[in-house]
Each structure stands twice: as C-alpha cells, then as structure tokens.
Amino acid sequence: MELFTPDFGLIFWMFVAFAVLFFILWKFAWPVILKNVDSRADLIDKGVEYAQNAKQQLDSAREQAEQYLADARRQQADMLRDADRLKTQIIEEARSAAQVEAQKVMDSAKVQIQQQQKEAEQQFRNQVSEFALDIAEKVVKNQMADKQAQTKLVNSLLDEIESKN
C-alpha cells in the first residue's frame, strides 16, 4: 500500500516543484501565450470583419449588377419601342409617298386621257367640217349652176351681214 499513499516529503517536493513550475509559467510563458491568443483572436476578428466586408461588397456588387441588368432591360425595351415607332413611321411615310405617287400617276393619266379626248374631238370636228364643206361645196355647185340662184344667194348673204351690223 505504500505505493498508493505518498510520503509527506514527496508531497512537499511535488508542491514546491509545482509552485516553481507555476511561477515560471506565470512569469514567462503565460504572457506569451496570452499575447499569442490575443493576436490570434485579433486575426480571427479581422478575418471575420474582412469576410463581412467581402459579403457586403458582394451583396453590393450583386445589387449593382441587378440594377445594371434592370437598366439594360429598360433601355432595351425603350430601344424596341423606339424601333417599333420608327418602323411604323417609315411604313406610314412609305404608304403616304406611295399614295402621293399613285395620285400623281392617276392625275397624269387623267390629263393624258383628257388630252387624247380633245385630240379625238378635234379630229372628229375636222373630219365633220371637211364632210360639211364637201357637202356644202356640192350643194352650192348645184345651186349655183344658174345665174338667178347665184344672185339670190349673194343678196341673202349681204342682207345677213347688214342685219348683224
């Protein structure tokens, strides 16, 4: 049983050795350990702070990216609306230009038709007057065959001229 019950001297020297070791550790090792623990805690705090800053920057960058995407979508929608308006305007301008051109062609055709009609009427009149003159010439030749008819015709023409004046 002596093995399990230590002597007073052994306990005393163990206590002295423990006290010396505790004093050495407390005086020299403990400040170094605390300093290292504090620097490690500072390093961990800085790492956490850096991670939080990085997360904030990432969130901010994500928000900016979403804002840029929203702006880009809005600009795209504006561009598409402007392009649609421009397309409609171009179609309307082309339509009105085509109508103006068609009206010009129709007016030109009307003028040509009227001109051709006038020419046809003039040709018709010329032909009718030629026929009338031929007929009149033949009638006058028949009537003027005798002297008395010629005198009567001249007198009636002179009477007509006098009555007009």
Describe it.
- The protein contains 2 helices and no strands.
- With 165 residues, it is mostly helical.
- The protein has one domain (8-164).
Quick rundown:
The model has no long low-confidence stretch (mean pLDDT 88). This protein has helices at residues 8-143, 147-164. It is mostly helical and 165 residues long.
Taking the alpha carbons of the first and last residues, their distance comes to 183 Å
Largest sheet: none
Radius of gyration, Cα only, in angstroms?
65 Å
In the predicted model, the low-confidence regions spanning at least 5 consecutive residues are: none
Average the pLDDT over all residues and give the rounded result.
Answer: 88
Q: What is the number of E strands? A: 0
